[in-house]
Amino acid sequence: MNLPAPKDRGGRPRDPDVDRRIIEAALQVFGLSGWSGFSMEAVARTAGVGKASLYLRWSSKADLLTEAVASRFAPIAEIDNGDVRADLVEFADLLLDLFCGPHGLAARRMAVESHIIPDITERWNRVRESQIRASRAIVKRAVARGELSPHTPIGVLLDALHGAIVNHSIAAPEHIRSQTDARRRYARQLVDFLLSSLQGYTAERGVEESARL
Questions:
Q1: Which of 22, 32, 58, 95 is least buried, going by the fewest C-beta atoms within 10 A?
Q2: Residue 60's closest CA among 112, 120, 123, 104?
Q3: Alpha carbon separation from 92 to 36, 84, 106 (Å, rounded)
Q4: CA 29, CA 170: separation in Å to the nearest integer?
Q5: Using CA atoms, how far apart are residues 46 and 26, in angstroms rounded to an integer?
């Protein structure tokens, strides 16, 4: 989920390769050390560049991390394939890439620490809110199409999906998390399990409601 490259701020042309190394280093340092351990010195050391190179581009560590987040973590656009399984699998793929992909550790840190980092809170909230809107719209459209029961507990379903992915990003061995194919398989298995479980749950709710009539 990448945003366009940051705009040139004028002055001496920026070296795209140096920019890339610094952005990658910033996310690595933040992921490993959090905001309290995040510093221009640590980023410069990890990127293999002089600290002056950072200050030529960013005036503060908050400015640097803000641009790093903007360049790597984009809000999720609407997902609508006309099929609930396809939609949920695509959504799960995106979340798995976010939390288990190359910048997964930084994303997990951001989910916890964003509220204490200057200039980051609003940007990360947009990413989080886009996840909520996209996922709820998937389920609501599926209910409207008749693919899912009107008794579907939307919040519980999405909490189970999101929670399983976050847990997977923490508990699964790194060699599994890092494999794109393994993440794709997990997304499909998770969605199939949830949809299968949901059928039994909503059938029970329907019987209970009929009995009350």
A1: 32
A2: 120
A3: 31, 12, 18
A4: 18
A5: 8
User: 8-26 burial, b for 16+ CB within 10 Å, e for fewer?
Assistant: eeeeeebeeebbebbbbbb
48: left (phi over 0), alpha (psi -120 to 50) or beta: left
Query: What is the structure's pLDDT at 118?
Result: 78
Q: What is the pLDDT of residue 202?
A: 79
Quick one: tokens of 171?
């508990």
What are the tens digits of pLDDT across the range 102-138?
A: 999 999 999 999 998 878 888 899 899 999 999 999 9
**pLDDT tens, position by position, 57-111:** 999 999 999 999 999 998 998 999 999 999 999 999 999 999 999 999 999 999 9
Q: Give the separation between CA 28 and CA 44, rounded to whole angstroms.
A: 12
